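Hey, can you fold this one?
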Amino acid sequence: MEQFKFHVGLNVSDIEQTTIFYEKLFGQKPVKVEKGYSKFELENPGLVISFIESREAQPRFGHMGIRVNSQEELVAKKGELEALMKIELEEKNTSCCYAVQDKFWVRDPDGYEWEVYHFLKDDDKMGGRQSVGESKKELAGCC
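Sure. Predicted structure:
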């Protein structure tokens, strides 16, 4: 059976800053870079993500995330990323979206939020997320 890949295209305000951020987040170079455009193709997770430079770059949805398979992977990814970018928030044993998770959050140059998390167990509560950052810009609810 053929494996499908999820694709998302995001409008961004500065393609160069965005490309640098996602090279760090994904740990690889984009497969295509053109004027005002870059694209990454990931195998794990199966994702094709494109960035289009636009004056209309305004994140208006919840967030995106990367689920890792173990606590060790989460710790390793956090260590790798905190040397390259600001970790906005770290949460341990938090109830969010009817699940208990350990996670941390990063934000790209346009404000798109990414959670990197390890699923611990199902939960019967929706949960939530606290606000963070010196900018007083609140991170959206967990889901």
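The longest helix spans residues 15-26. Let me know if you want another pass with a different chain boundary.
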